[in-house]
């Protein structure tokens, strides 16, 4: 059993611990936020989300429910929307212990603010040799585009459903994406695959990807071919959503040979091909599932009962 707030705090803690920027950089980001808040006038403070002072992930929030609620059981999934919340209620009627609905993808205020977390992409590219000034410029434009794209959405539908049915509801997006990115990068570094085909084979040994492969949605090469040598392999699975296509060129120039990601738009794929870069789609939902599973291990180890749905095949590792 864990308190609702403890589950949220743990998500932020593991997210920071596995953040590709490193913990020192996160500290700087949070310090800057605190300074910004202090300098605000009272009428501005009213509209400031206080979670930003301690949580560097705009796309991860407690969405409804009393933070002091004891969570004995939860249902987790990749997308937890009104239909899944009604499903949770049916399961609860049948006797399942469900106090919390835990989504991966953002809902409510976390969805509305998804774009803010994307700034970290510039830091990730900088690790691979793209100058931070170029990275900041490229991601800034793309963030504005994503922010505008999210404006028409009815963000709070699922949150309203959870509130009416009396569930605690939260989501953990970037923290879990940090977990999967770190996990798959270490795994591939250790395997040191010599061809693109070898990367696919190695990925298929991970249970979530194997399951996806058995369901026609396994890892696939979308730029390059299986006999090619991959060069420097970079796993790119965090930072909110897809970055700008111009980053492909910069990453290629910086020496990245192959990107293993969750998904790539046609624009990104073309840009990568033009720059002789290879791309592997590891699989969106299967990758998200790995990140969630790594987090759920920690909750189960604290005595919380876990049910999964919405594309999340539970694999327990520790
Ligand atoms: Zn996702």
Helix content: 40-55%
Q: Based on CA inertia axes, which overall geometry fits?
A: globular
Enter the CATH topology name of the largest domain: Udp-n-acetylmuramoylalanyl-d-glutamate--2,6- Diaminopimelate Ligase, Chain: A, domain 1
Beta-strand residue fraction: 5-15%
Classified by CATH, the class of the largest domain is Alpha Beta
Bound molecules: zinc ion
Q: Report strand order across the widest sheet.
A: 2-6-5-4-11
Which residues sit in consecutive blocks of at least 5 with pLDDT less than 50?
A: none
CATH architecture of the largest domain: 3-Layer(aba) Sandwich
Helical run tally: 14
**Can you say what the CATH homologous superfamily of the largest domain is?**
NIF3 (NGG1p interacting factor 3)-like
Integer tally of domains = 2
Query: Structural class per helix/strand content?
Result: alpha/beta
Supply Rg: 20 Å
Task: Looking at this protein, list some descriptive labels.
318 residues, Udp-n-acetylmuramoylalanyl-d-glutamate--2,6- Diaminopimelate Ligase, Chain: A, domain 1, 14 helices, 11 strands, 4-stranded mixed beta sheet, 49% helix, binds zinc ion, alpha/beta
């Amino acid at each position: 059993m864990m308190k609702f707030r403890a589950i949220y705090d743990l998500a932020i803690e593991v997210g920071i611990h596995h953040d590709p920027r490193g913990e020192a950089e996160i500290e700087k980001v949070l310090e800057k936020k605190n300074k910004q808040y202090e300098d605000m006038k009272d009428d501005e403070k009213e509209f400031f989300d206080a979670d930003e002072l301690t949580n560097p992930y705009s796309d991860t929030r407690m969405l409804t429910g009393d933070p002091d609620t004891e969570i004995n059981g939860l249902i987790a999934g990749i997308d937890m929307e009104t239909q899944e919340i009604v499903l949770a209620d049916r399961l609860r009627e049948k006797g399942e212990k469900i106090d919390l609905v835990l989504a991966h993808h953002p809902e409510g205020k976390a969805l509305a603010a998804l774009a803010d977390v994307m700034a970290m992409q510039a830091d990730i590219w900088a690790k691979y040799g793209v100058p931070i000034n170029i990275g900041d410029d490229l991601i800034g434009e793309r963030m504005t585009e994503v922010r505008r794209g999210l404006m028409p959405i009815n963000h709070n539908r699922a949150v309203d459903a959870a509130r009416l049915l009396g569930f605690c509801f939260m989501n953990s997006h970037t923290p879990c994406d940090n977990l999967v990115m770190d996990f798959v990068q270490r795994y591939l570094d250790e395997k040191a695959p010599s061809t693109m085909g070898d990367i696919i084979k190695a990925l298929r040994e991970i249970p979530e990807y194997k399951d996806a492969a058995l369901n026609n949605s396994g890892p696939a090469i979308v730029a390059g071919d299986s006999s090619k040598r991959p060069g420097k392999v970079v796993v790119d699975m965090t930072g909110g959503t897809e970055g700008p296509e111009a980053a492909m060129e910069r990453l290629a120039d910086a020496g990245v040979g192959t990107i293993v990601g969750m998904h790539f738009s046609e624009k990104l794929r073309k840009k990568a091909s033009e720059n002789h870069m290879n791309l592997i789609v590891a699989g969106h939902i299967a990758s998200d599932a790995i990140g969630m599973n790594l987090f759920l291990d920690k909750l189960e180890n604290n005595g919380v009962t876990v049910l999964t749905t919405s594309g999340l095949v539970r694999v327990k590792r520790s």
